[in-house]
């Protein structure tokens, strides 16, 4: 076999990619591949993984195969390489027969340096047959964590890769991932038969990233405030469902944020257009499912927001890793609710048992991370098998520390429970033993007979789970790599059992309590939160105008609308249209004098308006409301409309009321005439014309339940307001 020519890697790096020097382990990894050695790379997002196989591919004769899980990722990387003047192609389901033949022809002519292939395409017999006859330099397996069933993104077809490579020929392999726990790392190496591979593991610590977790409460309002605080900066908002992606993208857009959606349900050309708009800074924010961002090389993403709780810490770490890839500011905010965890567990119910159990453990880890008041960075690094001694001082928990308490006795008891159950069980099982919970596991293993059974029942399951996880972080316990979820004692833990010492534990967050306190605070503020002087001025103006128009005052604007105006000080038609119960129709009809008054009041009193914290909504744009308006225009029976949208009559009337309060005129005469005669309609009309309020409870009291149902009165109120208020 002829000796390989000397390659000046630094020259190649500068000539093709424009970099003057390598980062971290890149040069060592590239040399390892060039020397035909199997290589396993664990490197966080943004640390330059792709260069580790791209540069050796350019330096070696033949074509390198890159196995990649996402079509969007392939296209993005191929486009980038083509821009550098590198001949790279992909083979996947988006190509036509003639395009595939063209790619194959170029490979056989030795013109292609990198060929990106989806694992599904690689398993096709004709692809294997073709590659067997080509000059292949090596195989790179990107997103290698997909191999492991213990990981967060397991793909069964990835487990067949080794067998297919063997069919193609004896080739060196480089496997790369940004997220691998010690357990996943072991599984990848075993499956690829790479036990002897050189392993290059970079630190998972992204020092420029700030991690924060907030409870899901007034989430839309918090989101708008947060994004507006970072106005003009690039950001990604991750949601769990396509429907939520569309809703949040629209919410941001109506609140003057340049935002676009990205998910697998969009037409490929729309998806690509939105991705390009984000990369080219024509959009500031992309709202996406996790399908977005894998391999997207945008260095200046300044914030990553998880609107919904992610499915695993691996997924969370990988997605937050898209922030601050240039080493500058990167903010990572997650909105957390245990309800999200419950919802995600329900999604897993149809999976095979092992996969379901694994998913449950990953979700438990996610919930524990969110609830924990310990340094976020320490938790993340520990999860990936990396020790981090001190607190980082740069996460929400470090900047706002929670109370710590002495726990010498409890720690000794927890460690003893692990010891007496023979170090073969999960944290969940140990907490059941300590709290004295009799279930099929504690009884079948006779753990209900142990001296520690129920010895910690003065504390709840959450307390013990938090304590055990904290002593895991402090290395009194360690994870059993061979058995997923199982914890064992370290020497430090054994020593503590024999010789216990003072130890402080941090109290977890109690997000439910925090939300409750926030709601109470908001309730108090709402009770007296509006500007009383402005409210009185607005009421007087309403009374004066109503008198001139010979209408009851509430027809113009109701009290809650005036209170909101006296809280947020709308100074434009658009701002006023987003006040509850107003809408553009009412603004056009009655708004000008009220706006003039507010503008003058704001100027005279030097008030900073709260327009930036008003969450504008898209009520009138929602599909169901448009559908209802169209059906009413066509004079369709209301029962029929309700039935077609699976609504009760009460729910339909509520929807119609929202439409009416937002200023849209509706003609319900065709339906009302079928249930009420003219005389009864006139009686209700006269009542609303004279009444000081349009409250239905008051109307029922005045007109009597024997004569009219609540439904009759609500429909007549809609008719009345449509004719006079809209």
UniProtKB/TrEMBL annotation:
Its cofactor is Mg(2+); Zn(2+). Keywords: ATP-binding, DNA damage, DNA recombination, DNA repair, DNA-binding, Helicase, Hydrolase, Isomerase, Metal-binding, Nucleotide-binding, Zinc. SMART domains: DEXDc (SM00487), HELICc (SM00490), HRDC (SM00341), RQC (SM00956). Gene3D superfamilies: ATP-dependent DNA helicase RecQ (1.10.10.1390), HRDC domain (1.10.150.80), P-loop containing nucleotide triphosphate hydrolases (3.40.50.300), Winged helix-like DNA-binding domain superfamily/Winged helix DNA-binding domain (1.10.10.10). Belongs to the helicase family. RecQ subfamily. GO terms for molecular function: 3'-5' DNA helicase activity; ATP binding; DNA binding; four-way junction helicase activity; hydrolase activity; metal ion binding. Pfam families: DEAD, Helicase_C, HRDC, RecQ-1-like_HTH, RecQ_Zn_bind, RQC. This is DNA helicase RecQ. Residues 30-198 form the Helicase ATP-binding domain. Its EC number is 5.6.2.4. The lineage of its organism: Bacteria, Pseudomonadati, Bacteroidota, Cytophagia, Cytophagales. One of its GO terms (biological process) is DNA repair. Residues 219-367 form the Helicase C-terminal domain. One of its GO terms (cellular component) is bacterial nucleoid. It catalyses: Couples ATP hydrolysis with the unwinding of duplex DNA by translocating in the 3'-5' direction. It comes from Pontibacter arcticus. Residues 528-608 form the HRDC domain.
């Amino acid at each position: 076999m002829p000796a390989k020519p000397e390659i000046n890697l630094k020259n190649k790096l500068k000539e093709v990619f424009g970099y003057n020097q390598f980062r971290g382990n890149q040069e060592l990894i590239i040399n390892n591949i060039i020397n035909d050695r199997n290589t396993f790379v664990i490197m966080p997002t943004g640390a330059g993984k792709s260069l580790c196989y791209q540069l050796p591919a350019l330096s070696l004769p033949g074509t390198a195969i890159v196995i990649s899980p996402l079509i969007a990722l392939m296209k993005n990387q191929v486009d980038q390489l083509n821009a550098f003047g590198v001949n790279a192609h992909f083979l996947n389901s988006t190509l036509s027969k003639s395009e595939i033949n063209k790619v194959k022809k170029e490979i056989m002519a030795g013109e292609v340096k990198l060929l990106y292939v989806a694992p599904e395409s690689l398993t096709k017999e004709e692809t294997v047959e073709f590659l067997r006859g080509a000059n292949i330099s090596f195989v790179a397996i990107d997103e290698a964590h997909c191999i492991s069933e213990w990981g967060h993104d397991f793909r069964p077809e990835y487990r067949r890769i080794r067998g297919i490579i063997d069919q193609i020929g004896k080739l060196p392999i480089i496997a790369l991932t940004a997220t691998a726990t010690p357990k996943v790392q072991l599984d990848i190496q075993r499956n690829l038969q790479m036990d002897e591979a050189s392993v290059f593991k970079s630190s998972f610590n992204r020092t420029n990233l700030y991690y924060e977790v907030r409870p899901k409460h007034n989430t839309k309002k918090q989101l708008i405030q947060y994004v507006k605080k970072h106005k003009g900066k690039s950001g990604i908002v991750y949601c769990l469902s396509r429907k939520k992606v569309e809703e949040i993208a629209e919410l941001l857009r109506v609140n003057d944020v340049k935002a676009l959606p990205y998910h697998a349900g969009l037409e490929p050309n729309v998806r690509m257009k939105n991705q390009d708009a984000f990369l080219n800074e024509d959009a500031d924010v992309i709202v996406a499912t996790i399908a977005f961002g894998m391999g997207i090389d945008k260095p200046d993403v300044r914030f990553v927001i998880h609107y919904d709780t992610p499915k695993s810490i691996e997924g969370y770490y990988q997605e937050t890793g898209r922030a601050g890839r240039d080493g500058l500011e990167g903010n990572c905010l997650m909105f957390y609710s245990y309800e999200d965890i419950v919802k995600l567990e329900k999604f897993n119910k149809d999976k095979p048992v092992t996969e379901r159990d694994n998913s449950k453990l990953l979700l438990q880890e996610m919930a524990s991370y969110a609830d924990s008041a310990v340094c976020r960075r320490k938790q993340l690094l520990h999860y990936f098998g990396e020790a981090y001694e001190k607190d980082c001082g740069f996460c929400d928990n470090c900047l706002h520390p929670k109370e710590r308490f002495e726990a010498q006795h409890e720690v000794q008891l927890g460690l003893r429970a692990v010891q007496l159950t023979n170090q073969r069980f999960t944290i969940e099982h140990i907490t059941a033993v300590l709290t004295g919970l009799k279930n099929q596991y504690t009884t079948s293993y006779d753990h209900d007979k142990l001296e520690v059974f129920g010895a910690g029942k003065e504390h709840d399951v959450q307390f013990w789970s938090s304590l055990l996880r904290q002593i895991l972080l402090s290395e009194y316990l360690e994870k059993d790599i061979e058995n997923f979820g199982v914890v064992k004692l370290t020497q430090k833990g054994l020593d503590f059992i024999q010789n216990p010492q003072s130890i402080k534990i941090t109290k977890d967050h109690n997000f439910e309590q925090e939300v409750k306190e926030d709601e109470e605070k908001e309730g108090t503020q709402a009770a007296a939160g509006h500007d009383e002087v402005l409210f009185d001025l607005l009421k007087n103006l309403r009374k004066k105008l109503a008198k001139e128009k010979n209408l009851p005052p509430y027809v113009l604007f109701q009290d809650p609308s005036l209170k909101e105006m006296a809280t947020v000080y709308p100074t434009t038609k658009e701002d006023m249209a987003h006040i509850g119960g107003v809408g553009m129709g009412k603004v056009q009809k009655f708004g000008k004098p009220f706006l003039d008054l507010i503008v003058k009041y704001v100027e005279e009193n030097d008030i900073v308006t709260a327009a930036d914290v008003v969450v504008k909504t898209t009520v009138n744009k929602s599909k169901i409301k448009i559908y209802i308006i169209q059906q009413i225009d066509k004079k369709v029976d209301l029962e029929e409309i309700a039935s077609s949208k699976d609504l009760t009559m009460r729910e339909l009337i509520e929807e119609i009321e929202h439409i009416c309060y937002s200023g849209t005129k509706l003609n319900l005469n065709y339906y009302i005439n079928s249930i009420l005669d003219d005389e009864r309609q006139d009686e209700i009309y006269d009542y609303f014309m004279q009444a000081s309020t349009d409250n239905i409870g008051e109307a029922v009291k005045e007109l009597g339940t024997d004569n009219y149902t609540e439904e009759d009165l609500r429909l007549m109120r809609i008719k009345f307001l449509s004719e006079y208020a809209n």
